[in-house]
Design a protein that fits this description.
Layout lengths: L2 H27 L3 H6 L5 H12 L3 H14 L4 H13 L3 H14 L4 H18 L2 H17 L4 H13 L8 H14 L1 H15 L3 H14 L5 H12 L3 H14 L5 H13 L3 H14 L9 H14 L3 H14 L4 H13 L2
Helix pairs in contact: 3-4, 3-5, 4-5, 5-6, 5-7, 6-7, 7-8, 8-9, 9-10, 9-11, 10-11, 11-12, 12-13, 13-14, 13-15, 14-15, 15-16, 15-17, 16-17, 17-18, 18-19
């Protein structure tokens, strides 16, 4: 190698050495991503504990558990989701929406998070009678369906919204029927239930709705929820024998479900038979069943217990139960009307 080439090689070697040395120094001084991530504690244990509390109806305790979790790890979308669910069950729709909005912002592709945010917005829309908020309900349900077309629960929420909402807030029976058909293609049993809702609430055709529900009974679902939906229909139609048939079928697949006692009590009140047993059924439901939004509310059980006491001629106990129902849900029209009638007749 000639002398000029040796000199050039030496200069190049010095430059490479300097670059490598600087890179080593930078690497040592730069923050370590793995260590930074490790500083955030795992929220899964707290979420599981909160879910157990939630399932027992201990929403205040679950909120405390989840609040502690998000204070330590603010990037857990699931923790915010369960916080939103807890607040929803306590009818605190503002906090519910706030927490579910955080869950959606952290995990915007999660269909279930959008669905429950829609439900929280629905609570606010009903409370405030807000058309603008109602439109947000529809948007969230539509997003949930678009993200996961197989989310039947979100499709049923959207169907119900489209049936109930006025056109100015995006209601449309034609669009509701599209959801019914889509649900039927995914799950025949859910399709019959969705069509029954459409016939009953959208078209006011009770006979057609009952035909759909009888097809559900013939299909013999393997889970209890379809039977309880049918029981709710027969309760509103004042058909205690059909109601009991649905409950007996539910008992075959879920014999320990607390909702059995609630509906058995209603069947007894409607038929005015075996009222002492019905009283025990209602009290059992109130004592053992969590007050879940997807289950018959405790306020309803109190109202039916009041009706039972009226049948027995126990007006004082009946009034007490109606007051208890209204304390839980002040907008219960039937309980208020019955209480006012009792109070008026006692003057």
């Amino acid at each position: 190698m000639t002398e000029p080439l040796r000199e050039l090689a030496g200069r190049i070697g010095n430059v490479i050495f300097a670059v490598l040395f600087a890179a080593i120094i930078f690497a040592k001084s730069a923050p370590q991503p793995a260590l930074a991530a490790a500083a955030l504690p795992d929220a899964s244990g707290a979420i599981q504990a909160a879910q157990r509390q939630f399932n027992l109806g201990k929403y205040a305790a679950a909120i405390l558990t989840l609040r502690s979790a998000v204070a330590q790890n603010s990037s857990s979308a699931e923790a915010y989701y369960w916080l939103g669910r807890c607040y929803y069950e306590t009818l605190d729709y503002d906090n519910s929406a706030d927490q579910l909005e955080k869950a959606v912002s952290l995990d915007p592709r999660n269909s279930v998070y959008h669905q429950w945010l829609g439900r929280a917005y629905g609570g606010k829309a009903d409370r405030d009678r807000s058309f603008s908020m109602a439109k947000k309900v529809k948007k969230e349900f539509q997003t949930a369906v678009n993200l996961n077309p197989s989310n039947v629960a979100a499709r049923r929420d959207l169907e119900e919204y489209l049936i109930d909402a006025p056109w100015i807030a995006g209601g449309s029976k034609d669009d509701a029927l599209e959801q019914v058909n889509a649900i039927a293609a995914l799950d025949p049993i859910q399709g019959h239930l969705a069509r029954a809702l459409y016939d009953r609430e959208g078209m006011k055709k009770l006979d057609e709705a009952e035909t759909e529900l009888r097809q559900v009974l013939s299909a013999k679902p393997k889970t209890a929820d379809p039977y309880f939906e049918i029981a709710e229909f027969y309760q509103t139609q004042n058909k205690p024998s059909d109601l009991m048939a649905a409950i007996d079928a539910a008992a075959q697949v879920s014999p320990n479900d607390s909702r059995l006692t609630y509906y058995r009590g209603i069947a007894a009140v409607l038929s005015n038979t075996n009222l002492p047993r019905a009283e025990q059924d209602f009290k059992s439901y109130l004592a053992s069943a969590p007050d879940l939004s997807d289950w018959p509310p405790h306020a309803a059980a109190r109202e039916w217990l009041g009706r039972l006491y009226e049948l027995q001629g126990n007006r004082t106990e009946a009034a007490e139960q109606y007051r208890a129902a209204l304390q839980l849900e002040p907008k219960r029209k039937e309980a208020r009307a019955r209480l006012q009638k009792l109070e008026k007749s006692s003057q």
